[in-house]
Please model this.
Amino acid sequence: MSSPVSAPLVPAQPNLGAYGVQDLALFKTYTRDSYRAAFGIEAPPWDAARMRQTWFDSTVDTSSPTNVAVYKIASTAGR
Model:
């Protein structure tokens, strides 16, 4: 199977008076089970030294360790 692909998709702002930040997500989120179901492989191993991340961006240029991708993330503290 080929490498998993996840590219950002900017959703339209919901036409509602109030909505959650999840409605503005650029990437689909995955659990270990949904990742395995979608891509047929296991998700990368858990690294307790890093923050939990339930999405990935395969469009980032990782050809050099000096390349940096910056994301603005809204989150609830402690999640």
Summary: Residues 1-79 form one domain. The first helix runs from residue 32 to 39. The two ends are 32 Å apart (CA to CA).
